[in-house]
Amino acid sequence: DWIMKDHIDEAVARIREQVGDEEVILGLSGGVDSSVAAALIHRAIGDQLTCVFVDHGLLRLNEGQMVMDMFAGKLHAKVVHVDASDQFLGHLKGVSDPEQKRKIIGREFVEVFKAEAAKLTASGASKNGAKWLAQGTIYPDVIESGGAKSKKAVVIKSHHNVGGLPEQLGLKLLEPLRDLFKDEVRELGVALGLPHDMVYRHPFPGPGLGVRILGEVKKEYADLLRAADAIFIEELRSTVEPHSGKTWYDLTSQTFTVFLPVKSVGVMGDGRTYDYVVALRAVQTSDFMTADWAELPYSLLKKVSSRIINEVRGINRVTYDVSSKPPATIEWE
Ligand code: XMP
């Protein structure tokens, strides 16, 4: 629509004016905010933008490929794809404490990103070296970091954020989504040509599958979880609730699969199995501070369970998480 078009023109003009002919780096995560920021900045300054996409090996199935197809393939943006999965998994080896896992993933993320950014800021890699770091900060982030959140006495989970990075890298900060609410960011994303499914995605935590594999993270576990989770999401996206006409994916706020590193006995054909368990999680919430478990239809749960057990060799039991927040949290770690 026209209002959105004006909004884009205005934002583009502002970015061009701010940046001039200097170069910009942006950390692309595949999430909504960094994706929309990347698309907007790319619209404004094209090849003066370089996106850095750090793959920590804890992404969902085909996620890395999807990000590359969209940004490098369709938008023709410059994207550096860093496959750091071995490095992340190496540092996580033997670590089972949730907070320690979060800290390691956050720290490594900053390390890898800084190393890539350093290459791009040095002259030679680009014309003059990048001078700007772009971030997909949105209005609620601005409020949160100034107010209530920092005063909270008890840290339930440490969130990894990239605060302080621009200073460390000696870069100026570019935050073109700073004044926008989530809904507006999504509308902007669609208007910029990003696919609906990408822009209306459920949130995905920075530490990724690292906090959805309970205890020690192993590649074997991550591969099983990716396969099971893809089935769950596929069924949620394709099952329509008749009264609203919406899919169960759109009727829920966050949905995912959790890998439990315990084995249970099952039977398949004439044989006994002794394999891993997954839990399905689906919640409805408006603010993610409190959340209800979603009353998914039994028929949907039945289909997902049967598909996971038949299609993912190594998982022989599927459970459904019926815990609300509080006292449970949305993620299991
Ligand atoms: P919990 O599990 O605390 O999660 O109920 C609330 C929301 O926050 C997301 N979450 C994170 N997001 N980095 C993020 O960007 C993190 O470290 C992180 N931990 C949890 C979670 O997915 C849910 O939407």
Automatic annotation (TrEMBL):
One GO cellular component term: cytosol
Pathway membership, UniProt: Purine metabolism; GMP biosynthesis; GMP from XMP (L-Gln route): step 1/1
UniProt: ATP binding residues: 29-35
Domain GMPS ATP-PPase: 2-201
Catalytic activity, as annotated: XMP + L-glutamine + ATP + H2O = GMP + L-glutamate + AMP + diphosphate + 2 H(+)
One Gene Ontology term of the molecular function aspect: ATP binding
Domain of life: Bacteria
Keyword ATP-binding: yes
EC numbers for this chain: 6.3.5.2
Alphabetical UniProt keywords: ATP-binding, Glutamine amidotransferase, GMP biosynthesis, Ligase, Nucleotide-binding, Purine biosynthesis
Quaternary data: Homodimer.
Function: Catalyzes the synthesis of GMP from XMP.
Protein's recorded name: GMP synthase [glutamine-hydrolyzing]
Source lineage: Bacteria, Pseudomonadati, Pseudomonadota, Betaproteobacteria, Burkholderiales
Gene that specifies this protein: guaA
Section of the entire sequence shown: 206 to 538 of 538
